[in-house]
Amino acid sequence: MREQAPAKVNLHLHVTGRRADGYHLLDSLAVFGPAADTVSVDGAGRVSLEVGGAFAGGLAAEPDNLVLRAARALAEAVGIRPWGGLRLEKLLPIASGIGGGSADAAAALRLLNRAWGLKLSTARLREIALQLGADVPVCIESRPARMGGIGEMITPAPKLPAIALLLVNPGEALATPSVFRAREGDFSAPANLPEAWPSAAAMAEDLRRCDNDLEAAATCLCPPIAAVLAAIGAQRGCLLMRMSGSGATCFGLFSRVEDAQAAASAMPAAWWSSAGPLYEAPV
Ligand code: C5P
Fold this sequence. Notes:
By secondary structure, this protein is an alpha+beta fold. The protein is built from 9 helices and 10 strands. Strands 1, 2, 3, 4, 5 and 6 form a 6-stranded mixed β-sheet that branches. Strands 8-9-7-10 form a 4-stranded antiparallel β-sheet, with helices on both faces.
């Protein structure tokens, strides 16, 4: 059994306030794709985790991967002992603003919900997901969604036109707490978005009026972000470029998949990139 763990891309991210516990209140339109990790399970022995894939090395020093924490949290929630040989294929860059760890945790919850025959509802999985991180609940369904609260309040996204995304990461990890700490300036209002967009151009026009409120702070901590954004924006057919999450991955929004793919092949080889349509979550 296997589950995809697609990248989460924040098309805008407004920091609207701060809670007493230090967590920030957000407003964001999140979409998924075009790259993904995968999580699979095989065998019925004691729960274990093996990590492979291009970015596996970045997790080697981590004692307690989010996939294992997800397995334990799920087992505890239903009162069983966790089991199964889990494998994570780590193809998304680590600490890069596209929710890779969150997507992995959510994929593990979906996977083990099936493998252990639990039949928990999406709502229950989201509750367990929130214990693992603010971004994990939205990754349970991996469908376009509006995020509020600290990320856990999930409401429907506007109806989206066909779009393609280019993701580019300059190869420097950025820790989310340090980016939030470095943020300066006032809080923003939530974005005013329509119920549907008739075209990618109309979508980009509205999103250009929004922001990623963490982009300036992240660029101070990781100056190559400015070069990544300039390189994306110079590509033919790019309707909008912006940083995702707390960075350093940036995205370009395109109407045509071919343009996004051509743009990816024009990026410097030292950068990670991926291009394609949005992820289609299975029904
Ligand atoms: O919830 P998660 O573990 O992904 O968050 C990592 C860190 O990012 C938090 O400890 C907090 O410093 C910061 N954060 C925040 N506001 C959010 C989400 C994360 O300040 N809404």
